[in-house]
Write a structure and sequence with these properties.
heterodimer, A: 288 residues, alpha/beta, five-stranded mixed β-sheet, three-stranded parallel β-sheet, 7 helices, B: 257 residues, mainly alpha
Chain lengths: 288, 257
Amino acid sequence: MRAAILGLALTSVVLVLAATATGSPAEPAQSGSCAKANLNLVEDGQLSLATDNPAFPPWWGGAAKKPWEVSNPASGKGYESAVAYAVAKQLGFSKAQVEWSAVPFNNSFRPGNKPFDFYMAQVSFAPERAKNVSFSNSYYFVNQAVVANAGTPISRVRTVAGLRGYKLGAQVGTTSYNYITRFIRPSQSAAVYDSNNDAISALNSGQIDGIVVDLPTAFFVVAVQLDDGTIVGKLPQRGPRERFGMVFEKGNTLTRCVNRALNRLWTNGTIRSLQRKYLARAGAPDLR
Amino acid sequence: MATLSTLVFVGLIALAVVKSPGWDDVKQSFFDPTVFRESFPDIARAFLLNVRIFLIAEVFILIFALVIALLRGLPGPVFFPLRAFATIYSDFFRGIPTILLVYILGFGVTALQLPGVPVSPIFWGTVALILVYSAYVSEVYRAGIDSVHPSQEAAARSLGLTRFAALRHVVLPQAVRRVIPPLLNDFIGLQKDTALVALLGVVEAFRQSQIDVSGNFNYTPYICTAILFLALTVPMTRFTDWLIARDRMRQLAGGMR
């Protein structure tokens, strides 16, 4: 933790220095050490990005195009794809200069050189994770939610404490699973699956009562993947505010330039309008 | 001399690994002592589930596989359907990837929502392992039974033993003793395959280590799991080797007399 704070402090010092070195903060993001020619890239002249396959809506959109299933990250549609292209534009890349590859989540943090400049797949920041990779600043602040089949007893639960008696499931390696074990603390141990699809199979076969996923995914699961699903409710924020960040090779200097681009996108309202476009849906009840 | 050459050999390999350009990254990702200490107790607790699944499955496999092997050895045209069943069974369950069977039973059969049929993922994961390994083990039994010379059975029958008694007291004791090493071999495979039950949502050792890996973005918990599996399988492989050696000694001794 102390190392993380020190790292943050150092990063901010560097940021301040960089800002003073390149003059006023109103200058375009692609100047100075973050000029397109000076960026630390896997392949010169292009931005090599990666995500998991299949890439699910609402994070990714467009018609599926080989090798991609379900959607197409290169479409610029869907929230993460739109943010990626907005960042690319800030860094000075045209749409044609962005290349996508499929990298499973578990390979995104393997040791050694990474085949991508950055990776986006709803990866939540955690100080333990940041010891082995670098994270960008937040491009989305997340809430978790509970999904179940309509009409089942769990669908009438209105409090977090009320969830304790039910068997819950989540995808392995997600903060959704951590939320169950840390904050819901159910009486039966949580079930853990390779993918949300497996969790849905288990829900449909009665092996679990509910699934915990992030809220935008919950809307997609209920609308598309379940025949008669319902969002039981949005879970309250517990612990540090959860945020999605892009994943970089540890210590990659590109992180700083992407952060600058993200700051700009937050300030000029781009991120808010993309969230309205892709993630805003009718509200879900709050669990207390 | 053997010790010396082993030391030099192992030393050279270790040096090559440690001096490789990526070693620092790999060391941090796979051999982080803090992550090891933190994750080991949880993984060890989850590993008890693997041991339980393995022990329960093993009992059923030994029985089912023997039944299938015996069905396959039944003589005469009357028993053709049973022989055919046994053949198809072992072809089918040896041919299908275990991981698929785990999925089909764990998510498919339970989704039928048949009354009275359990939905527990541990139950269906264990059933899948029993079905697959019974097929393998039945072939091991069959090889053992076939290796007993037909004159043995003929001699037993000529002494007035029934077919069943000859099988029970003459053929099977010899057959089973011969196949103990390959049997144990299959059980080592079974122990490792208990990790497949994790696909159905069960948190056993492998899944627990996966949870710890993704929490830290560090692969050290996988090393914990590997050590636990080795702690179970290595004594068993040594025991198997010892059995083989003992058997060989006995046969050689018999030949000398």
